[in-house]
Amino acid sequence: MxxxxxxxxxxxxxxxIAVEIRDLLSAVVAVGAVGLALSVAFLVLKxxxxxxxxxxxxxxxxxxxxxxxxxxDRVAARGGAALAVGAAACAFVVLFLALARGPFAALPPFxxxxxxxxxxxxxxxxxxxxxxxxxxxxxxxxxxxxxLGEATVLFTAVIGVLALLRRHGRKGAAAEEETE
Amino acid sequence: xxxxxxxxxLFLIGxxxxxxxxxxxxxxxxxxxxxxxxxxxxxxxxxRMRGRAxxxxxxxxxxxxxxxxxxxxxxxAIVIGLGSTALLITLAVRLYEKYGTFDITRIRxxxx
Lengths: 180, 112
What we know:
The complex is a heterodimer of chains A (180) and B (112).
Chain A: H1 2-20, H2 24-44, H3 48-69, H4 83-106, H5 117-126, H6 134-142, H7 144-165, H8 170-179
Helix pairs in contact in A: 1-2, 2-3, 6-7
Chain B: H1 2-20, H2 24-45, H3 68-99
């Protein structure tokens, strides 16, 4: 499992760079490094479907982020947060860690999953009632309503993006015609 | 257990970025980092030591599989994360077009 630790440390280092660097484009590239390392980590954790999805999503996300930052504000990512804000954030982080101790103690040890709900799916699959790939069976068969909800959310997000990117609303277009 | 702790550190880096930074793009980056950490945590919780991918093949024993359920749900979460990130970036770009800056302290309506 040493490769998992290396990947996690790499992700933490890249995340710190992404948070602290001033140049926005460099920050976006660093967050891309985090996402691609996450894709490799999924592969190490025996989740090939997730690795493929994460790779595609990360590249699309990177393209959108670079498109948003490339010509804008090359110098303006001033770190300069007020000292009080930084102190408050650090206090919050410490509080979070203190509260997280209990749940962490209750977690099953790493490498031994609970496997309670999935047992039903795996048994049905072992009887030959599902596709060989269990993840796609769960998404498209056992939990198809989840996938329907996901498609709805994605569709709503696309509608929101289109509505925001529209140059003029109906009202604005009418006003413009009047001025012409 | 150390893996969980490292994952938590990654999440806290994202939370710190959201709380402290003034730049809108930086805030979106922090959100993305904490999202990655949560996805990774769920997959870590379903990992079985020396397990195999949840795909049936001839020589696959059932007891030797990683948990497929978190994988299926995280797949959904990744795609939804892409949608919400795209929406956030669009909002940030429109705010930039209106106010000429990503700095939330200089954007009038966002001053808090």
